[in-house]
Amino acid sequence: MTGTAPSDDDIAAAVAEGFAGQIAHTRALVGFASTRGREHAVQAWTARAFAGRGYEVAELALDPVAIAAHSGGAPVTAEHSDAPIVIGRHRPRRTAGRSLILQAHVDVVPAGPGDLWTHSPFEPAIVGDWLYGRGAADMKAGHAANLFALDALRRLGHQPAAEVILQSVVEEESTGNGALMTHLAGYRAEAVLIPEPMDERLVRANVGVLWFTVEVRGRPVHVREMGEGANAIDAVYRVIAALRGLEAAWNAQKDRHPHFAALAHPINLNLGRIEGGDWASSVPAWCRASCRIALYPGMAADAAARAIEACVADVAATDPFLCRTPPQVTFDGFFAQGYVLDEGSDAEAVLADAHRAATGDAMQSVTMPCYLDARVHALYDRVPALCYGPVGENIHGFDERVSLSSLQRVTTAMALFIARWCGTEPVA
Hints:
The protein is of the alpha+beta class. The protein contains eleven helices and 19 strands. It starts with 7 loop residues before the first helix and ends with a strand.
């Protein structure tokens, strides 16, 4: 053990030395089927992993009242997870560097039909350079990288010379309330790093997201008298057609948003789930459609919600049936603004330097038309929120996978970043 700061080569070698253990840790994480509301077991396992390394561990419950009072909070519905957020805290003996939050989420989206996967989604498999499994890329590889980047420094007899807060959150895939809760609870640092699967690039900007449900009540009759009834499923499709018009109008505004102008279709309306009716030979009396739509940075979520409500009201006003039975619109998930990462921060420069040292290439930036928890730290903490992580494929799809060689490069870059940003001191 020495007081001399470890070299870049030493850090890369320490990451490589621990990489087999990192893969095993990642596989263990993927083995938890931690879909929404089922994250308790993986969070308990994570708390033990943090405690076993000597970090101060705390569990943070989601507070629906505090979340509802914040402009960036999403509705807390019956489907909302009640699993805790797990916090691991490293405190230096003497603060000499800058503080850092390392954040990752453990919730994953449903796997879908298992027979459409080459490998069972929650039985992680390695084939060549790829680790397969639901959540392997999004984002349990990054979750493990947060921990193992710190492990690499400790393997060299060093630790960060500043406070580092490890945040294992839930609700990233549905509301963003987990990350928001860490903000509401007062966890702060001078920079944040979130290793989402970004193909070794830094996110420069990303959209906000709204989730909403449209519900229509029809007039049920026997199909022999179908013309006398009103088909709720057909009516929902007419509403969706109107919302497609709103989607097109918002996409037509992309040139007003420089980071999004080059994207072919930055604003995506997704009809993610539809259900309705009770009997094939009855005109359906009800239909619900669950939707997701994006919004540009700078567009307030409540303003976007009003535009959606107005769009639905307009189509209902001109529809012979819907004008008498107006659709109901409920916002029941993401209610989040987008953000732009300001250029020129010290944190970005340090990460770019670490990336070049780890990969030999200049770090590129990218615009992402999806939700990211970085919005909490960028918008409300007002600190550099760096979203940067490994190469992943088939995210939210079948045969989701993460590149192991990319994961090792990213973990090396993260360890180098921590050493540069926080500084190091000998482990006591």
